[in-house]
Each structure stands twice: as structure tokens, then as C-alpha cells.
Design a protein that fits this description.
Elements: E1 6-7, H1 11-18, E2 30-31, E3 46-51, H2 68-76, E4 86-92, H3 98-114, E5 118-122, H4 128-134, E6 143-148, H5 166-172, E7 178-186, H6 193-201, E8 205-208, H7 209-212, H8 215-223, E9 227-231, H9 253-265, E10 271-275, H10 286-303, E11 317-322, E12 330-335, E13 341-344, E14 358-361, H11 363-370, H12 376-385
Parallel strand pairs: 2-4, 3-4, 3-5, 5-10, 6-7, 6-9, 7-8, 9-10
Antiparallel strand pairs: 1-4, 11-12, 12-13, 13-14
Helix pairs in contact: 1-2, 2-10, 3-4, 4-5, 8-9, 9-10
Amino acid sequence: MNQDFLTPIKESVVTHLLLQPNLCLGKTFSIYTKEEGFPDLENVQIAILGVQEDRNSENNLGCGENLHFIRRKLYELFPGNWNTQIADLGNVLKGNTVSDTYFAVSEIITSLLKKNIIPVVIGGGQDITYVNYRAYDSLEQTVNIAAVDSRFDLGNLDDELSSKSYLSKIIMQEPNNLFNYSNVGYQTYFNSQEEIELLDNLFFDAHRLGKAKQLENIEPVFRNADIVSIDLGSVRQSEAPANNNASPNGFYGEEICAISRYAGLSDKVSSFGVYEYNSKLDNNHQTAHLIAQMIWYFIEGVNFRVKDYPFSGKENYQKFTVLLEDDDPLTFYKSNKSGRWWIEIKILSDNKYKRHALIPCTYQDYIEATKQIIPEKWYKAMSKLV
């Protein structure tokens, strides 16, 4: 990893940590400090990475600053019954150009992914999601993205890359390794009907805020994601004021923490980011505290992963076959470990889509299939494979 791209955490955070109890979370981390140097990444499973880049964040300048407020709140928390090894790699400073910052972030994330370390990105605009996605190019695999956001951030095709247009760049630019995009928590009045129809025509998933608040129904979205990107604008302003695009409606604090835990529990999720934090608007560091708790729940989820994705051996699963009147049977699998469900997608050849042969679903999807109602997620996955 090129450590030249990274700067140590703020000295005041180190001093603050020294005053905390010995059992606090921060004292279990390997931290990049000026005195101790860069941490050894051997056996590390999660790496926290700050990004101080706000130039392409629309209407939210300042969203890469003062990330030490988040770290202070995170370090103060107490860990659960965990054995997860965590490192804090410090921050990527603004480059001479935005492209310089993008290059540095992409290189670091690529290096972490190759070491099987999960990057947790804090700070910067949500355009960093595009950079995170591009870091997967060297892995030569198709990628699923789950974005928790009140807006789709499609923009126009001729727009420059920004926090409000990054998705169109992911969809249109080569190499195109995107298999599925899922939006969780969109609010209809922030998105045109043309955008909603476009996502449907592309066989992507979009879950309105009201539906997404039924958290058990959206858990499979995160179980199927490689990248989870959270825009703080998806959280209601009263809960997270440190975002210039926040609105009165959105997720509550406990809901966004539950979503973060779902992301951590997923065997597939290999990168996680919380974007658009603007410390200038934070009231008593409330948003910094919420982000710290989101990261805490994500770490807890990673620690309790059960590794029950039924890809190789299926001996630890119950198999259910649903006969359909006018189509081939549907095959469901239920994990004996976790009780979670998958639906099988028939892939004719051993190709790059093999890792999508099993789509996470719910028990309710199985019940509906027994009533001859084929799950929409099955239709959409098949449509992308035809």
C-alpha cells in the first residue's frame, strides 16, 4: 500500500484517546499516528479511511473536513464481544486536483480489497462511491451496489462526475462491471418519474422510504451487495443535521444503525462508506456521534458473520422446490445456521455471473411463490442474465 497518500490522525484525537478508559474501542485499534507510524495490517479485517475531498459534492462544501470529530466519538465507545481486528489508516488529503484524490482513494481501496480487508470510508461527497466502484476493476468481477439515499443521483449524461451524478457514470462508463444497483430509502418527490422508470427498465431495485422502514424486507438487499454507500441525506435532519441536503423525512438513527448492521452481517459486503458529513452544520457533534454508532454496528455485523452463503456445499441447507403452473420450478434454500433464504437462478454456463446464481430473499418470497406469485427480484435477476 502506498502510505504516501495517507496522513496520520490528528494529535488532539490521540490525546483525547489517552484520557479514555482502557476498555474503550479506540484502544483496541491499530492507529496511524505521527508517533507510532503506519500500522501493521497483518490479520486486520476492517480499515477505517477518511477522505477530505468535497469539491465535487453538490451544495455541501466542507463535507471532507473535521473527520476527527467522528473518530473521537467512535474511539469513546466500548466494543461488543468481538474478535475483529481493526486499523485506522488516517486520511487522504485533497490532491492538487479532484482526480488526484480519486486516484489515491482508488489505489488504497484496491490494495485493501486484495488483502481481504474491508475499507470503511468516512468523509467526502458521495461521488467517492464511483471511486470505490472503480477500485474493483482489478478484481475482474461483477459488482452489486446498495445505496442508502433519498435520491438516485443519476444526473444528466453530460454532467461532470459529482455527488449528484455518480450513478450515471457507473452505469455508462467502461469497463462496466455493475451487475445490480439497489437504492434503499428513496423519496419520490426528490426523483423524477423518468428516473424512477429508468431504474425499473434497467432491472435495478428501488425501495421507497416507507417500504424500506420495514427493515426485515430490505435485509436481502445488503446480503447481495459488494459495496454499501450511505448518504447522510437519507437520515432525517433532526437526527443528523450535519448535511446541507438533509430534509425533514428520512431514516431514524436506530434504523440507519440497523441498516449498517445488516451491511456488516452480509458475507458479500467488502466495502462500506458513509458520505456527506458536514461538521459545520453539526449540532453538539450529534451527527458525528451517529456515524460513530453506525460504524460500531457495522463492525458488530462483520464480527457475527455466519458465512452461510450456499455457493459451494449445500449440505447445511434445506432445499424447497416450488412447482409453478406455467414455468419451470423455483428452488429455494434456507440456511440451518441463520434461517436466511435464497432463491436459485439458473445460469447455463460457468461465466462471470456465477456468483449471482443465488439471490438473497425472504421467507415471504417463498410463501408468495407457493401461491404462484414469482418474486420480482427473480424476474429482474433473470432479465439481466438473458
